[in-house]
């Protein structure tokens, strides 16, 4: 019999009770016991408190209170406008800081982070060590945080916000059902989550709605809670934590090379190669710096990737600075592709990749990927719109002619198409017999076509094109088209040269 073991999920909630006020404090707008800070927002034509600092809360000024009533209680108020977008960006920034504790970090607006710490707490000596490290780091950044552990995200968040000793002791407000349902539950004598959980949930759903029953099930773990981490877990990720901060950049880069070797072994076990590699350097003061490189083809040998990182680090406008020292390095491979094993040389060196791909990778790492443009295929039947210049490796496939057949279209197009004059052609749909190109008269001996391409009606009205592959007496092969259909769109269509076949 095969025994399957499942990892029990464990969550840590980080609640920032005064997040908006502490954000403003970082910008120099700090309240005091004599002049507390409140953040106001318009609600139904009146200004109400959206958040406060610790001094205002101690005076009984709570969110939801009309600003006029708050001024009546405390005349010397410092008032700021509510900026939920700035608070959201700050919470996401704090989530990025907490990625050093676990890659599974989910912002829970407006003021909470949920960390899935299953399998990560032992790296810090257990849950107590992890939460101590997180509190210390966030306190250094100027933030007050309250924490709680639980087996579900909803329970962890509620325990952190309400400070209850257990899930059963949480007030019904922890279910976040809205003021109307909370009032109805209290009138029914249900004041805590424990009061509700010990009763049949079918009756609860009938009386107070299915949302109430679902909220209780999520709180106690009988229903799945939505948990969307800010960062998608990459297929391959390795890290190295240091017992003491390391101030030597060369040593940290050596650790990065070791991590690349470890990641490549993991890729080999998966039968894959990496297309994008990201290194995150965590500093002891809470700052981190991310450097990423990408390759034109899948790679699972560390040497070329180390070279790309060396070039990328050399071109950074803000050089890698250890500050007070690095305390961790993380390497992720977020983009992978299948890669068949190759035959090594006699000296056990990896099989060399295409020279062009290696050159492109080095140039992109040295100059920056945004400065190196390559043609990418684009879904469009209009020839000049079927490709575009973009940075990065081309995504999608180029059309390939059948075996033994010449290409249907030339590799390079003439822009803009060159007009042809004195064209002699059979009407209505015949290929040209003779035409003048510049000062020369070309006589056509072979022709294939037409390939009819209609205009993109959703962009703007246009004429139909009939393309022909033609060959003149001297063997030159041209790609020409007639712009417009005889009698239906044009009485005298124009002809153009759009490309040359090699």
From TrEMBL:
UmuC domain: residues covered = 34-159
- InterPro entries according to UniProt: DNA/RNA_pol_sf, SulA_CellDiv_inhibitor, UmuC
- Which keywords does this chain's UniProt record carry? DNA damage
Question: Which Pfam family, any one, appears in the UniProt record?
Answer: IMS
Recorded superkingdom? Bacteria
Q: What is this protein called?
A: DNA polymerase Y family protein
- The answer to whether the entry has keyword Nucleus is no
